[in-house]
Amino acid sequence: MNIESLHLFVDVARTGSFAKAAAVHRLDPSVASRRISKLERDLGFRLFQRTTRTIALTEVGTEFFSRIEPHLIAIHEAQQAARDLVAQPIGVLRVTASTSFGYEILSPLLPEFLASAPRLRVELMLTDRRINLIEEGIDVAIRLGELPDSEFVATKIMPITFRLYGREKWSDASGVPEQLECVTYTGAAEAVRLRSPVGSIHDVKVNSRLAVSNALAMKRCVTMGVAPGLLPNWLVKSELADGTLVDLFPGYDYRSEPDRAAWFVYPTRLYVPSKVRAFIEFVTKRLSP
Amino acid sequence: MNIESLHLFVDVARTGSFAKAAAVHRLDPSVASRRISKLERDLGFRLFQRTTRTIALTEVGTEFFSRIEPHLIAIHEAQQAARDLVAQPIGVLRVTASTSFGYEILSPLLPEFLASAPRLRVELMLTDRRINLIEEGIDVAIRLGELPDSEFVATKIMPITFRLYGREKWSDASGVPEQLECVTYTGAAEAVRLRSPVGSIHDVKVNSRLAVSNALAMKRCVTMGVAPGLLPNWLVKSELADGTLVDLFPGYDYRSEPDRAAWFVYPTRLYVPSKVRAFIEFVTKRLSP
DNA sequence: GATATTCATGCGTTTTTAGCACTAAAGTGT
DNA sequence: ACACTTTAGTGCTAAAAACGCATGAATATC
């Protein structure tokens, strides 16, 4: 049973004519006639009595008409409302990211984003586990590092580069050391390769006596003076600005695997809700150099 | 947009599974999957987020679900109610017949018929005009005499035979007269042919000094003693029983045109409402010998 | 880690629908 | 009273949609 046919029925009942209702719906009159006939077959009762030139609602037709009309309208309105919901950034946007990224990067952006989308609520789920986007009803996740292989869509936010930072400038006259005592991220690389301004390559072995599983805490350990650390660019902006941390080997290039970046990850590409699009656009704009 | 698909959507949302909902609807899971996809295309937004093994309502899906569900139920109930309306003799039955037939035949039947269908109202439109069944919303008409040529369905109630009746037995020893002073129905035959019990044929010329356009009034004229009259069988039952009228030529056969009868006439034969069927059955049963 | 469940898709077949031309009948206007 | 116009409905054919089945991919589950 077709909803459009029910709407057509309503219009036929209103106008008292297949031809007029067909014109409203941009249909050939014969199509209107046949659709109503099919509707009657589906329903199991006759809606109109017909002569070759006139139609009249049957008793059941009248009854059915008055009963379904408000509900047809309601369903149509529900559809409209739902369309608006995906067309405008309203409703609830569920975002997940690592605690560190959320704290360091997202939090400062949120006041302005929330102001730009007044009818939107944001639920920021900060966790260092990779949770299931579907089950948790996540609209968009921010994932760092390797691009996750999945059916989800990924768009790049910004490249991520790691450099060695510490409390004080590296002043050893012999230049880049062969090994360095560092605070490390759990499971991080054990060596980094640098290229000096003049082109020479230096491999630095990273000795770690303290491995931390949280980027923020790791940074704090570095600033507290435990040891230098290999830290991502996004984590150290303010510390570089106020001098709390300094680049140990400025001018050196760090060779890193390609596509090390921050990514938006979200399900599918058809019908991306506008709240998701709005968030992605806003954040990307603010974080791109 | 298909109503069944909307119901399917509701069940999928409830069970959280295409396969389960498909089983409920006796569908192949792939059909369920495709119907929901088509529904999403029609609606313009995505109802579920999917992985290969799980689905979850999107935010719009949830919103849409809760908004349309009661209306879907309401439409379904409207259909059920309408089906019941045609399946049981309830509602309003509009009947038209001639005033005479209504007075003489239908009126006595109505108490019992109404009792047999307690939820039915009857509107008895007695008129000697042949009104338009469609325009007036008539469910069933009773027409006497020649079968009307039309797109309507006709079923026979009972044969109609005309005989000559008067206040007193015909006692002329010479038997059937060649001509007879009669009260006639407007436009009625001017002669009748009788066959005696022994087989002899007698043509009686009907002389009319009074023609009446209403059968009841005509009968009354006869009983009042104006003259004998050519009256239909259905009109004289009680008068024959109580002796007010007598058959002038008992034992004689009256030759009449074929198919002179009382007919039910009603629009179409598909989806005859049960109130119409009930009425036709009841009346036919009571009037058949 | 093997198995089975679940959603999705490709493909050939069947069913449904649209569009057009045409018929029959009934209003409409002169 | 007559021609004209409008309206509902029907054949017919081409196009579109839906179905059922087999198959594939991914992920729960035991």
Explain how this protein is built.
The structure is a homodimer of 289-residue chains. Chain A folds into 3 domains: 3-85, Winged helix-like DNA-binding domain superfamily/Winged helix DNA-binding domain (Arc Repressor Mutant, subunit A, Orthogonal Bundle), CATH 1.10.10; 91-159 and 261-287, Periplasmic binding protein-like II (D-Maltodextrin-Binding Protein, domain 2), CATH 3.40.190; 162-255, D-Maltodextrin-Binding Protein, domain 2. In chain A, the strands form 4 sheets. Chain A has a 5-stranded mixed sheet with strand order 4-3-5-14-6. Chain A has a 4-stranded mixed sheet with strand order 8-10-9-13, covered by helices on one side. In chain A, strands 11-7-12 form a 3-stranded antiparallel sheet, with helices on one face. Chain A has 289 residues and is of the alpha+beta class. In chain A, strand 3, helix 5 (99-116) and strand 4 form a beta-alpha-beta unit. Chain A contains 8 helices and 14 strands. Chain A is rod-shaped, with a radius of gyration of 32 Å. In chain A, helix 1 (3-15) crosses helix 2 and helix 1 (3-15) packs across helix 3. The two termini of chain A are 55 Å apart. Chains A and B meet through helix 1 and helix 4 of A and helix 1 and helix 4 of B. The first copy, chain A, binds a DNA duplex (30 and 30 nucleotides) through residues 17-19, 27-35, 37-38, 50-55, 151.
